[in-house]
## 1
Amino acid sequence: MKRTILVLSLAFCSLAATAADTSKGAESTAPTCPVTGKAANPAITLVYEGNSYAFADETAKQKFSDDRANSLYQKLGGKTAIDAAVELFYVKVLADKRVNHFFEDINMNKQKRKQKEFLSAALGGPIPYAGKDLRSAHESLGGLNDSHFDAIAENLLATLTELKVDPQLIEQAMAIVGSTRDAVLNRPAKPATPAVP
Ligand code: HEM
C-alpha cells in the first residue's frame, strides 16, 4: 500500500511539474503539443470532452489517448463526474463544523472551480492545473493541522462513496489526495523511502 501511495505521489508530482509547460495546449492560436511541448501540427488533432487538441506527431496523439484511457480521471467518469463530486464535496465541507470556518470569507464559486481544476489534473485529466501550488494556497490558513486534513479527506471519501464510485478507484483517488498532506500543511516533504536491497 505504501508503495502504491509513493507511486501515485510521484505521478502526481510529475503532473504538477509538467503543468506549466503544457498550459497552452488546448486554446492557443499557435498551439503547443500537450504531450511533447513542441509546436503542434494542426492536421493531427483529436477532440476530448469537447476540446480539440493538436499534436506534434501521431506518436504524441497516441500517447495522449493512452494516458487518458489509463487515467483515474477517465475511469471515474471524466469532467462530469469530477464536477459533480466537487459540488457535493463542498456541500459536505460547508456543513462540517470541524472545518467550515476556514471557508467563511472564501468565494466558493472560485474555490469549486479551482478544486475541479486541481483534482482533474491530479487524477490524470487533460488540462494542466494552473492555480496556486498547494503550499502557498494554504499557508495563510492559521492553525491548519492534521485533524483538519483528515476531516477534509473524510468528506471526500463520503462524497465518492455516496456517488457509488468503485471502491478500488476510491482507494486510488484517496491515495493521491493523501499525498498532498505535507504540502497542504506546509511541512517539509518526507524523503522517498529507499528501495529494499
Ligand atoms: C486534502 C487536500 C487538499 C487539496 C487537494 C486542496 C486543494 C486546494 C486548492 C486547489 C485550492 C485553490 C488554490 C488556488 O486558489 O489556486 C485550495 C484553496 C483553499 N483550501 Fe484547500 N486543499 C486541501 C486541503 C484543505 C484543508 C484541509 C483545508 C482546511 C480545512 C483547506 C482549505 C482551503 C481554503 C480555505 C482555500 C482558499 C484559500 C484562499 O483563497 O485564500 N484545504 N485548496
## 2
Amino acid sequence: MNKTDAVPARHPDGVPVRVAEDIIAAGAFVSAKGWTPATAGNLSARVDGGAMAITASGVDKGSLRSPDVLLFDLAAGKVLGGLAASAETALHVERYTADAAVGAVVHVHARNATVLSMVDASHEIRLEGYELLKALDGIRTHETGVAVPVFANTQDMDALARDVRARLADAGPRFGYLLAGHGLYAWGRTMADALRHTEALEFLLGCELERRKVMR
Ligand SMILES: [Zn+2]
C-alpha cells in the first residue's frame, strides 16, 4: 500500500471525499454564473448506502469547504451530525426517493427562471423548438417539447415535496421544475448532468422570456 492508498476515502463526518469535491466544484460553478446570490441555492449528490450529501444552510456556494457538505440519511430523514441542512432539504430528499436514477440535485435562484416563474405562474412552461433542448438527457432533436412544471412557492417544504412527488409521478421525462418567484430545481444522473440541465433550462427559460416580450 502506498501513501495515496492510505488517504481516507471519507471525511470524518462520513461524506465521501469525491462527493464533497464534486459539490464544492459545482458550488463554484453556479456561484460564478450568478445563480446563487446572497447564499441562496443548494446542492446535493446521492451517496451509496441510502444517503445524500447536501450543502449546509446559509453558506456561500462560491466558497464551500468540506465541513459545509453534510451527510443526510434518506431513510431516517436527518443529518448525521454537524450543521443544519438547507431549509429545502425535503425537496432534495423527494427527488432521490422518487427516482433511483437521480444522482444529483441542483437548486438555484437564477434570474430567468425566477422572473419567468412570476410571468407565467400557471401549471407549467413548455419549451419547444429550441436547439438547446438537446442538452437534456435523451433528447436528440429540436423538434420536441419539454414541460417545466411551476409550483406555488411556500415555506412549508414538506407539503411542497408531497405536491412535487404527486405531480411528477406520472409525468413524462422531467429535468427540472420552478418554484414561483423563487427559482429552479434541476437534477440528473450525475452532478455534471444536473449542472448541464440547470444551465440549459436557465438559458431556455431566458429565451422563452425574451420571446414572449417580442412576440406579444
Ligand atoms: Zn431556494
